[in-house]
């Protein structure tokens, strides 16, 4: 009686919780719902405490963690590099031994390798081994379609995109305001642009592309690509919307988790504003002070995740979940005492999904990273969008204008540069969302999307059935 081995798929994610989480959640679904075995390759260079705790919290006998050897980065990265350029170099160096690692994995021959957008360097090794590569685009469908269009734009547009006189019109999609263009394309001369273009230009080499979205959330962008074999004359692999896949298990990262949840237990329903700006987000000292004053003046309950201020919006990216100093040092004098009981200041990291899932949480002031966005919607929590870096300005606009679940903070000036939002404005917007009519409207829309997100992931739902279709094709492949 021979036991047939379970079908085997490998995953590779670039560093950063925002990339690892959705790929990991897909891997967990494959082992728990579809009876697969998964080898999850982890890039250890640049790994953060938050990422390590998340991976450790999700152990499963059929999910094998394979740590890639630490890469020698001496002379290759420096502190003045942008986060994406640094991340891309780390991936490039870490996957040098990929071919021998993939061929040495325990288990039957791989049905597929699933990567995120910054891991397209795997193609050569996978081609040599005849393993199909699937990409999981972990940001919005809107950014996905823009990214498919970018190589065409790169050929057709002279000069900088930020100097274009009109919004960018990706065929079939909502126009993208110039000031909302993602950081990676705002200066075509920098390495970050070259890396982004390199990876998105290789998207068509994949066998299929998963997107962490579903029709009710992004109908227009998904329609533009879902059934297209060519997008802008470029052959496009099948696109599979399988979202919202979000973190299910909240790891213990700082040890303050229980305290935070116990505080929330004592607050009234929907009364608390959760303020957290992503895994890497940092405000300038001036802006953090204004935000603290705005929260205090609003007289609303809040949980405020505070980090050491920085002039770079992404200063914490490679340190996510690290211990921070006493947050009081970075807040207005007396703030913590004056807001005691109404607000809770948390140093550097909070158990975000657990907080969003708590009935006392009424709104989320978020940088609108895509995972944070999906986590908020999955728990029916409306948002105040405070975009910080990457494509978050686009996300904040989509969420406020198209989806109707957020109010956007005016953090961008007419010239596209970041501006300081003053305390009175913050106070006004926080009150409007926590107590006003606007808040009621976006909360009820968030609840609709919560239900729709649940339905699409259930048997018979579109995201569930889409993933099942791919899984079945993997099972049948030789
Ligand atoms: N996160 C968290 N606690 C924090 C800040 C962030 O658990 O205090 C998690 C959050 O739940 C999400 C991820 O970090 O899963 C952030 O991903 P996202 O795509 O929103 O933003 P990025 O970090 O990529 O900018």
TrEMBL record:
InterPro entries: UDP_glucos_trans, UDP_glycos_trans_CS. Its EC number is 2.4.1.-. It comes from the Eukaryota. It holds the Pfam family UDPGT. The keyword Magnesium does not apply. Transmembrane segments: none annotated. Keywords: Glycosyltransferase, Transferase. One of its GO terms (molecular function) is UDP-glycosyltransferase activity. Belongs to the UDP-glycosyltransferase family. This is Glycosyltransferase. It comes from Artemisia annua (Sweet wormwood).
